[in-house]
Design a protein that fits this description.
This protein is of the alpha+beta class. 43% of the residues lie in helices and 15% in strands. It is extended.
Length: 138
């Protein structure tokens, strides 16, 4: 019989870990860690996995409801086909057009607004934040 697990203590121990520490815990428990660079997100995912391992994860009804929702749509598509998002970036106006299949920038189609923002800037960006659709603090 396995010894009882103190979930709260294990999750509290995650609070003091940096990105590499969290990845080490993940590697030890579950194998290769996800390729995340957000300490907060990795901490939340790891805390959920620890709880799910001990308590059993999502119940059958919750999984069924999530499956009914269908595929996840890229944030920004709800703005409607034809919407134009503009921003000044490094002295020039850039524009992305919302289309049914995704986001068009300079005749290239992107599956997400973040992918378009990354192409524009050359570094990883949260697309909704880049185009001012979100508050910068959240």
């Amino acid at each position: 019989m396995m010894p009882p697990v103190d979930i709260e203590r294990e999750i509290e121990a995650l609070a003091g870990l940096d990105l590499e520490g969290l990845r080490a815990v993940w590697r030890q428990r579950y194998g290769p860690p996800p390729r995340l660079r957000s300490v907060e997100l990795l901490r939340l995912l790891l805390a959920w996995r620890i709880q799910a391992t001990v308590l059993g994860g999502l119940d059958r009804e919750t999984r069924r409801q999530l499956e009914r929702r269908g595929p996840v749509r890229a944030e920004g598509l709800e703005l409607g086909v034809g919407t134009r998002l503009r921003r000044v970036w490094q002295g020039r106006v850039v524009e992305v057009v919302v289309e049914a299949e995704g986001f068009r920038f300079e005749n290239r189609m992107f599956r997400s607004l973040s992918a378009a923002a990354t192409a524009i800037t050359g570094s990883r960006w949260n697309g909704p934040r880049f185009f001012g659709l979100r508050q910068s603090g959240r």
